[in-house]
């Protein structure tokens, strides 16, 4: 399967929003410091309150933006790449299977993972609706 690799910026954004490191830690750490406008000690990143209240909000809008595909770009990509529809369906099935699992309510990781999966699912739904509207217009 021929999958496009994330750019460095995309990896940093995904890391910042989900808490799952994609790419190099040094790239992510430098970006957090740049966005906050101050130095950040690595131990601060392990603090859940700091992460949820300070780091994650810095990346929320960028995370949503990279998950949203322009309808013209989506149409061009879908027509030139038959794997696009299969990939979307695969992602939906994967995300939905995680959402169906019963997560332990007291486990912050499970709650965070569930929230991230709901966000991804909402973005997929939003993109699908945009695509359907674009197809209706054409």
């Amino acid at each position: 399967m021929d999958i496009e690799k994330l750019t460095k910026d995309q990896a940093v954004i995904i890391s910042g929003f989900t808490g799952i490191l994609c790419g190099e830690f040094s790239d992510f750490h430098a970006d957090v410091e740049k966005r906050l406008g101050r130095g950040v000690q690595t131990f601060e990143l392990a603090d859940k309150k700091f992460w949820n209240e300070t780091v994650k909000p810095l990346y929320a809008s960028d995370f949503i933006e990279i998950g949203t595909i322009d309808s013209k770009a989506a149409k061009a990509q879908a027509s030139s790449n038959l794997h696009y529809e299969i990939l979307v369906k695969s992602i939906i099935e994967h995300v939905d299977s995680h959402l169906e699992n019963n997560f332990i309510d007291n486990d912050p990781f499970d709650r965070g993972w569930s929230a991230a999966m709901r966000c991804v699912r909402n973005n997929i739904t939003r993109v699908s609706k945009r695509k359907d509207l674009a197809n209706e217009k054409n």
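The longest helix spans residues 108-137. The helical segments are 8-18, 25-36, 42-45, 48-66, 71-80, 83-100, 108-137.
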